[in-house]
Amino acid sequence: MALAIEPADPVDPAAFYGALEAAPVALLLLTRRSCGACRAMKQALVQLPASLGAHGALRVFEADVEDSPELVEEFEIFHLPGLIAWRGGEYHAKIQARATPAALEAALLEALARPAEPEP
User: Fold this and answer.
1) What pLDDT digit, counting tens, does each position of 76-115 carry?
2) Is 120 a member of any domain?
3) C-alpha angle 10/15/19, rounded to 5°?
4) Domain span including residue 61
5) What CATH number is associated with residue 89?
6) pLDDT tens readout for residues 36-87
7) Which of these, 63, 58, 100, 105, lies nearest to 81 by C-alpha position?
8) Which of 83, 97, 105, 117 is the most exposed place for a label (fewest CB within 10 A)?
9) Residue 44's pLDDT is what?
10) Are the C-beta atoms of residues 57 and 39 closer than 8 Å to each other?
11) 100: which DSSP letter?
């Protein structure tokens, strides 16, 4: 079963942050419609398992930076695609990995094994 990527709601930030907080593990993918690397990352993300073992269920949200510029500023994203992880409703880390399912899963599990980073 493919992992679904849900749109982040730029019109209702409270609902978006509520959804992040409700997920055991959540990823926010910041993209741009014209970004080829963003499309490749999205293709890799949908191949991740829907559950990360002891870490629990995974939810992935996507926000277009042209529709949600405030997220770019808030999380200090300088290059696309941007990928940010939350665990237990708390900001955890920015994720950097090649756009392959194996590399993404490894980078995510490695980040979740470390203590949370301070939120930008």
Assistant:
1) 999 999 999 999 888 999 999 999 999 999 999 999 999 9
2) no
3) 110
4) 5-113
5) 3.40.30.10
6) 999 999 999 999 988 887 888 899 999 999 988 888 888 899 999 999 999 9
7) 63
8) 117
9) 94
10) no
11) S
In a domain, 38, yes or no: yes
Enter the pTM of the model: 0.88
Is 108 inside a domain boundary?
Answer: yes
pLDDT of residue 39: 96
In a domain, 80, yes or no: yes
Contact 16, 22 (CB under 8 A): no
Please state whether the peptide bond connecting residue 81 to the residue before it is cis, i.e. omega within 30 degrees of 0.
Answer: yes
Interhelix angle 36-45/101-113, rounded to 10 degrees, is 70
Q: Is pLDDT above 60 for 1? A: no
35, 56, 65, 61: which is closest to 109 by C-alpha?
56
* Tokens of residue 8, six digits: 């982040």
- The count of domains in the chain is 1
